[in-house]
Design goal:
Helices cover 31% and strands 19% of the residues. The chain is α+β, with helices and mostly antiparallel strands. The radius of gyration is 27 Å and the shape is elongated. The strands form four sheets. The chain has a seven-stranded mixed barrel with strand order 9-10-11-12-13-15-14. Strands 1, 3, 4, 6, 7 and 8 form a six-stranded mixed β-sheet that branches. Strands 17-16-18-19 form a four-stranded antiparallel β-sheet. It has 13 helices and 19 strands. The longest helix is centred in the last third of the chain and has 34 residues. Helix 4 runs antiparallel to helix 12, helix 8 crosses helix 11 and helix 12 crosses helix 13. It folds into two domains: 210 residues, no CATH class; 225 residues.
Length: 547
């Protein structure tokens, strides 16, 4: 190659660079996966100064000024977040925070905009880059990249990932991560890449902590809200493509299971998906926050008025949703609870063995739905139910109450691995059973309905039918294997990040086999025996309604 040709190539490269810097483009490279490091060129109108960040925060007039191409290696994050404790020393969570071990995967987050006279002139652009040996998604799962200012997550006054200023020693539900409402919602940029590494969805969105006591766990469940103030009023994730919604849940693994398998709720809901209950779908994903690996999570529907409105094509003002926990007086989630309060009063004061009283209940509750819902909960031996994790809804103006299936992480009897747990006996309690988590009122409806011979026969027949049709070991074990395979690919990396489960082989795999699968191999026989014993043992004479 002669000297003149080399000079020619150099001139071409020079003028090409000039042209690129003067084009009205956001970037030469798009968010996604790349096989090797590259130099990133950011461009906008040449009259603007481009300023950028690499830490997830929005750029300001104090941010770095872009002058030369940025070398993107995929290693630009510095574990500044991964090593911050996200629980508290006296936490009652199942496990405390432990620092990640081994090398953690990273992504590079570039946020940039054009400024003039220190004033923002352009839209802020966000790019997420993953550098792998091949330009494909090695995780075999969708990837979510979340970026926001670090203070939104970890500052003492407003950081939603830590205990912070709102923590009160020895108070069960205290700390920043227990704060609810718009005040503790933080704006983030959300990007969704499919399992092939292609960006399919991105927008500014609001993020809060989700869940109950699991808020104290190191890995947090998150919920997201689309709002006009963020730019978009709805969410069109591919996973939720059948219904454009304005909120959804990104569930932590710790919230999905009661043992070290971490998939109990997902497995149970997938097994009974064809029964036709109101329940959650699932999509396993890998999450990165500000370019740092955040482990496995699961996208879930948020079972609220928006879910029901889309599912049944209803106006959101046309129905009621309540919490079924009697200890909080059947708290209103949406609408009104007065009709259910009246219904419970009626059950307390009337004998459902009488035909007219039973017919009245039948006019207020969708009993086929009740039977299917209770059958599922009882088969899986959910020890955190029915006083907890129970929701009901109805259409206004003579609609019937229906039950919503969710939060089965206490199924398979949690850590106890007891497939013999007698849920018929448990639901027959007329007194507070203490450690079992039930109360007389929590079991009242089931007890009262089972006193009616017509209902009792109907329930028993359908319970057996559900077990035969949906709960055979051949079918349920196949579902477990299919779901376990989805998560197993990335479980070791997740363990390295969160240090829970304790190990892949001796804890996660063992719990899948010895807890979930063992339960399902043996549950059919034991629960049918419990049913038969229950029917033979009780004479179902009308009982006092004063409980």
């Amino acid at each position: 190659m002669n000297r003149k040709y080399l000079i020619y190539l150099a001139l071409v490269a020079f003028f090409t660079t000039i042209i690129l810097f003067n084009k009205k483009e956001v970037s030469i490279h798009k968010s996604g996966f790349y096989s090797k490091p590259f130099e990133l060129v950011l461009t906008t109108d040449n009259k603007y100064t481009i300023q950028y960040t690499l830490d997830g925060a929005n750029p300001t007039n104090q941010s770095k000024i872009f002058k030369n191409p940025l070398l993107i290696t995929g290693k630009e994050s510095y574990d500044s977040l991964s090593f911050i404790n996200t629980t508290i020393a006296d936490s009652i969570a199942n496990f405390g925070w432990r620092a990640p071990t081994g090398e953690q995967d990273k992504a590079t987050i570039v946020k940039y905009a054009g400024f003039e006279n220190e004033s923002l002139q352009t839209e802020i652009k966000t790019l997420s880059f993953f550098i792998e040996d091949t330009p494909t998604n090695k995780y075999k799962l969708p990837i979510i990249s979340i970026s926001t200012d670090k203070s939104n997550l970890y500052s003492k006054d407003k950081g939603i990932f830590i205990a912070g200023d709102n923590f009160i020693a020895n108070k069960k539900h205290s700390g920043n991560f227990f704060k609810r409402g718009k005040e503790f919602e933080r704006e983030v940029y959300f990007q969704y890449f499919n399992k092939y590494g292609v960006l399919e969805f991105e927008q500014n969105i609001g993020m809060r902590i989700h869940g109950g006591i699991t808020r104290r766990n190191p890995q947090k469940s998150l919920k997201f809200y689309a709002r006009k103030e963020y730019g978009e009023v709805s969410i069109n994730l591919p996973f939720l493509a059948e219904k454009r919604v304005n909120r959804f849940i990104l569930e932590s693994m710790q919230e999905s299971g009661g043992g070290q398998a971490l998939i109990e709720d997902v497995v149970a809901q997938e097994i009974v998906k064809k029964i036709g209950l109101e329940q959650q779908n699932f999509q396993a994903v890998i999450v990165f926050i500000n370019g740092e690996y955040w482990g496995l999570h699961t996208i879930r529907d948020r079972l609220d008025e928006n879910y029901l409105a889309y599912k049944f094509n209803l106006n959101k003002d046309s129905f009621d949703i309540i919490d079924g926990n009697p200890s909080i007086d059947y708290e209103v989630i949406h609408g009104n609870n007065s009709e259910y309060l009246n219904l419970i009063t009626f059950v307390k004061n009337n004998d459902l063995n009488e035909h007219k009283n039973y017919n009245y209940i039948n006019s207020k509750i969708e009993l086929d739905n009740f039977i299917d819902y209770y059958s599922v909960e009882m088969f899986f031996a959910n020890h955190d139910w029915p006083i907890h994790n129970i929701k009901m809804w109805k259409k206004k103006n003579n609609g019937k109450w229906r039950f919503i299936l969710y939060d089965l992480d206490g199924g398979f009897t949690g850590n106890r691995r007891d497939h013999t747990l007698n849920m018929f006996e448990r639901l027959s309690n007329e007194v507070d059973c203490g450690s079992c988590g039930n109360s007389p009122e929590a079991t009242l409806l089931f007890r009262s309905l089972m006193e009616n011979e017509q209902f009792r026969k109907k329930f028993s027949s359908r319970y057996k039918e559900i077990i035969e049709k949906y709960m055979s070991p051949e079918r349920t074990l196949a579902v477990v294997d299919s779901i376990a395979n989805i998560y197993q690919i990335n479980m070791q990396s997740h363990i390295n990040r969160w240090r829970y489960p304790w190990s892949l082989k001796n804890h996660w795999k063992r719990d899948v086999e010895n807890n979930i699968k063992y339960f399902l191999r043996n549950r059919e026989e034991s629960t049918l025996l419990n049913l038969n014993n229950y029917l033979q043992k009780n004479d179902f004479n009308p009982k006092s309604k004063n409980n």
